[in-house]
Every structure is written in C-alpha cells, then in structure tokens.
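From the shared-data thread, chain only:
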Amino acid sequence: MLLVEALLLKALAIPLLARIAWLDFTTQRIANRDVLLLLCLGVGSLLLLVLRSGSWLDMGLSAAAGLVLFVALFPFWVLRKIGAGDVKLMAVVPFLTGGEDLVVFSVLLLVFALVTAGAMKNPFLLPAGAFRIYVQHLDRKGVVPFGVPISVAAICTTALVIYENMVLASSSGILNQLN
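Structure, as tokens:
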C-alpha cells in the first residue's frame, strides 16, 4: 500500500511541474512555494519508499545529487547565466525522480535542453507566428526559460516511473489482490 501512496505523491507532482514550466515560459520566474511543494512531494514519496524497502540508499542518492547540482549550478547563478529558480528546481528534482532514475532524467534533460536551445536559436522553424515572435524576443533578451526542459524531463521521468510500477504491479498480481 505504501507504493501506491508514493506513486500518488509522484503523480501529484506532474501538474505542479507543468505549472512551473508554464510560468517559467511566460514570466521567466519559478516561485519558491512551487519548488518547496515539489520538494515536499518528492521527499514524502521517497520516505514512503524507504518505509516499504527499509533501505535509505535512494534517499541518500537523491540528497547527494541535489546537493551536487546546487553546488555545481550556483556559480552560474552568481554569473547571471542561469536563474535562481532554475538552480533550486534542479536541486529539488532528484528528490522527485529518486536516485535510481537520475540517469533517465539526465538523458531526457539533455534532449529537451537541446530542443529548447534549437528553438531559441532557430525560431523561424516554429509553426506559429506569435510563438516565433515571442521566442525571438526571448532570444534578444538573452533569456532561456530553462525551467521548461527541467520540468518536462521530470514529468517524463515521473510518468515512466509510475508506468513501470503499474506494469510491475499488474504483472505480479498485486492489482488483483487490491480489487
């Protein structure tokens, strides 16, 4: 039952991540309350999984990854190359994805960051005129809403974790026992 509750907390994070992506795209701001709520959902989910498995390894990996990301990205914030919200979001996402799925998140983040950078550098490839003008405006200002690829990669990773656990639960007969 703890697995279902942990997955529910992860599922609740998906709309919050979508909100963060939208607000970062439109306002170039990531609210501290959204990052804090995401942290609470991630830590709660990990704690439920710790209670289920009895191992603190995943929590330790997530905390170490969050600390490393914060320390690594902090100088870029000081140099004004990345926003403070992006740094905080990157430090919190390992708690949401869990230590075991950080590789999946990293690969997806790389792909979505490259897509975002390509869209910023080549806005004429985008379909809608208004969207193209908006991206050109962002490019002139030198602002890239990096919270968007972070959020989209976290959403995809979280959805994949939920899907994997649902497939595992259905194949092992746990869902039949719950009915």
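The two ends are 13 Å apart (CA to CA).
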